[in-house]
Amino acid sequence: xxxxxxxxxxxxxxxxxxxxxxxxxxxxxxxxxxxxxxxxxxxxxxxxxxxxxxxxxxxxxxxxxxxxxxxxxxxxxxxxxxxxxxxxxxxxxxxxxxxxxxxxxxxxxxxxxxxxxxxxxxxxxxxxxxxxxxxxxxxxxxxxxxxxxxxxxxxxxxxxxxxxxxxxxxxx
Length: 172
What we know:
Helices cover about 35% and strands about 25% of the residues. The chain contains six helices and eight strands. A four-stranded parallel sheet has the order 4-3-5-6, with helices on both faces. Strands 1-2 form a two-stranded antiparallel ribbon. Helix 1 (about 5-15) packs across helix 2 (about 30-45) and helix 2 packs across helix 3. The radius of gyration is 16 Å and the shape is globular.
């Protein structure tokens, strides 16, 4: 089973088990799945479709994790970017990732060309979620869905995006 399917299954079979604990709080399996579904629904409301990319530029936090899994539940590719990138490096990676939506820590949101029209501050995640209806049919993940794009500079020193599919990350 794919990761999204496993989370949904765990939300039904072990709903009160701890799913995640991170700076900012913790969620049980049922809470975690519900949050991911809500974020996915909100992304779909904004026009995100399977294969679109969602970038997160932020320090580890509960919101960071929620956005990652919300993207997965919406069948969008997730591209985490390092908070230590210089503005010019960030601008280049954003151009390569071509994100539909960017979620960033407030102090990083204005750096490197994070376009205001598609950038949501992670500290404002709750307001962004509440601004929509947050409904709609859950997406059924497919093995060929874009799961993530991880940037690595490899041996050249120039970052390149390495794309992974949902099936390739089934053991993630």
